[in-house]
Amino acid sequence: MNCAGKILTRDSLTSWRHQLRAAGRRLAVTNGCFDLLHAGHVTYLEAARNQADVLLVGVNSDSAVRNLKGPGRPVNSEEDRALVIAALESVDSVFIFRERDAVNFLQAVQPDIYVKGGDYTLDTINQDERRLVEGMGGKIVLLAHVPGKSTTAILKKLAT
Question: pTM for the complete prediction?
Answer without folding.
Answer: 0.90
